Protein 1
Amino acid sequence: MSKPHHIGIVACSAEGASLCYRTICHEGSKLLGPHVHPEVSLHSQSLADYAACLDANDLQGVANLMLASARKLAASGAEFLICPDNTSHQAFSMVEPVSPLPWLHIADVVADEAVARGYRRVGLTGTHWLVASDVYPSRLLARGLQFDRPSDAERDELGRLIMDELVNGIFKEETVVYFQSVIRGFHARGCDAVILGCTEIPLIINDTNSALPTLDSTRLLARAALRRAVS
């Protein structure tokens, strides 16, 4: 087999990026052999800089941060890019046309998996910025999938829990319970799966403790990057 392509990770939060990186490294052996994984480079701007842009609805600012990382990763030898942060994909349309390298889009990866598993209507969890955005709806609807968002109050609380706790590596039982209650609401409204649309949510929610099958955006993106790297 020829040498796998070099993966560049444009990181935002430490927890989400770490889980993505670990998945690439740990699961690379399934494709490549014991302890083998593609070359990986990671660059991270300060999460505070991303949050400030998002609070100001400055998507061009988000794009500039992503592109600055992209240029550094290109210089390091990366051959394509991923961003294990769903919320930052709001700026993707400003990034992709001027990027020095091609990207995988996290919502495309998740939506394709939902279709492959035969789901028809999915619930969406994530930061308050992500849940209110068009990052997932546009990709889901293009594939004939329906979706459900949390209520405004749930959206705000999910966002608070993610930004105050999960991105800081704080995992509380009561937070798990809250996410579970939101997912039960999706189930009651006819959803047949739930998108874990924040790359930290899979650290507390998975198929064993969720009322619905989960679409783990972090690991799905990592696995898509692995497939791309060895294709």
Protein 2
Amino acid sequence: MSFRRVRYLGWAWQRVIRRWRAGALAALGPAALVALGLAWPMDVPRYLEVQASREMTDRSGRLLYAFLNEGEQWCFPRALPEISPYLVRATLAAEDQRFQRHGGVDARAVLRAAWQNVARRRIVSGASTLSMQVVKHADRTPRSLAGKVRQAWQAVRLDLRVEKDVILETYLNTAPYGLNLVGCEAAAQRFFGKPAAELTLAEAALLAGLPKAPGALNPLRDGRAARARRQYVLRRMLEEGYITEAACRRAANEPLGAAWHPLPDLAPHLALRLKPLAAQRRRLQTTLARETQAVAERLVARHVAAFGGEIGNAAALVIDAPAASVLARVGSADFFETPGGGQVDACRAARSPGSALKPFTYAVALEQSLLYPTEMLLDATLDYGLYGPENFDRRYHGLVTASEGLGRSLNVPAVTVLERTGYERVHAFLRRAGLTTLLRPAGHYGLGLTLGSCEVRLEELAAAYVMLAHLGEYRPLQVVAWPAREPARRLLSRGTCLALYAMLEQPLPDEAGAGLVPARGTTPRVCWKTGTSTGHRDAWTFLFNRQYVVGVWLGNNDGRASRRLVGVEAALPLAAAIFRSLPATGEPAWPNPGHDLKAVQVCAASGLPATVWCRAKKEALLPREQYLSRVCDVHYPTVAAEGDGSETAVGERWPGSARGWDLARVTGAAGALSFGGAVAAGRREGLRILAPSDKAEFILTGEPSGDRIRLRSSVDEQASLHWYLNDSYLGRSEPQRPLLLALEPGEHKLTCMTAEGVTDQVRFGVARPDVAMRFRSGAGW
């Protein structure tokens, strides 16, 4: 080979190399730009953002009420597991068969769409993937070639950064389904009245086809077009292997089934009240139970309608007693049609409770050992000059037990008990029990307090009844599921509440006679108390056991009276109907008394702890923590037992009127009760409080754990003792387990009692250092 030939070949080879380098650089330049564009930061959250409607859900997360979003649309985002698998597969089959395999843009679909568009000389296919549609919903790109290119570009970038399931979930939550429905959950609720998780194959196929042309395919407007689109989606699912041919045929033959379903609007009063809180979070979970709420609303509306306009409104609460959580809350009979305004929340309206407050008067008297459930009260005329309480039926029943007086809701015995207890004590107790409407001093309400000479709110009084049902522990009602609960406060002893259970237990009225709904099996044991306000303006019922508390109010928003507004006739049937509709919980309906009651021999005539002079006795269960120093004073000896040896005679004495009625003699520290027998006065049996001593004076130190004293008695090593400070129960001391008392400023009365009812009492004072001289001078006593 000649030198010239070799030189030419070398020159040619160098030229090839230079051209290859130039071509490589020309080819790699755009690729580098693409790589740089793909790697460039992207505002991913903006593409995954969903403008959600605020939701109020029940305790299980089911929708109760919703508010339109900022765009006046319904949109209820759901996680992918909360969406029917049928809808997921139908959407993939109809919109993007190769979704799991492409990188945001489906090249095969692009070529197919281009061929179809050229062949038919019009746009028949857009080749948009789900990723591209997610980008389109976020960017609002125009329907143009430039817009498509931008969608494709952003879709590829999005697909590199986000998991496929996240993109699919975002599409299902942002796709338009017609009307003002965004996302599959809103469409499922509107067209089928159910969550997206519960869609059948036919329903899912119908919804999956709507986003292609939401207006034209709306099943409420054009059923034929919607059916044809559903058939197409089902065929695509069959071709993709998602369903069998038999399933496809069955779904294709089903009716469309789409109808206008109102979106859930249960508990509207509560929803409006919680709207500011709901604005802070997408889904606000409440303690309500959807089925219970729906049934309660239906029963309230039907019950009020039966009065033909004589009674215009009602409200109801259903509460889980152990948890103090609201299961149903009905603020009015009809949110839109109630006379005087259905938007008025009657659960919060202040109305007169009538006799519904009586149980708390009896409770305070029992707690203060001023009443026994068995003792006799006089139901007769009662005159206080300007005030003369009468029974509802203006009839009197003579001697009745305290239990009968409360169970039959007799007014005179209730006023007698309040007079004995003091309306100041009862007023203070009701305030502690959450009745915030008792703003005036106790004297303003006077002896009429127990008969409802005040105003209360249904939800607050219901919380007080929950306290009774929960054996004395009070907590405000819970209606929102997530906030931390404040600890329970004990307002009454378990024994007192057990006594009230026995006093208020009554069978519900006959269902057939009262027109109530049929009972589900055996009706559990239940307590109930009704109330009727003066002038027949309000009717109430509270019904409870260990499982549930049901509170009901009936009346008119404008306060108009009606002779039919009687608690036992108007409110009790509704409360019973609601109670009977509640599901069984599997928990005991009645409390276990345990050791909180004790057997006591009481006089058969007076119902008070018997003395040796009471000839006829019977055994009764009384609260274990009650003092037994009030004993029968009806029977007394008329001839001395000593002296001439004559037989002792027993006389009887009864008060002449109901005013100031009390059959008891207070034995004080000298009283004692023998469980097998009777009280004998003057026997202390060695019980004596040693610390603090009577009329002791203490000065607070302010040191941690320094202002406490150990309570001591003469029988600490032999007996259990119950201790009371200012007539309120402190606790029980045991041998080798003393009780410590935290000192607080003031003058105090300390009492202790053995299990047999023997008591002792001392008084002592506690002062801060700057006022210690006041106690030293005796001014404090």
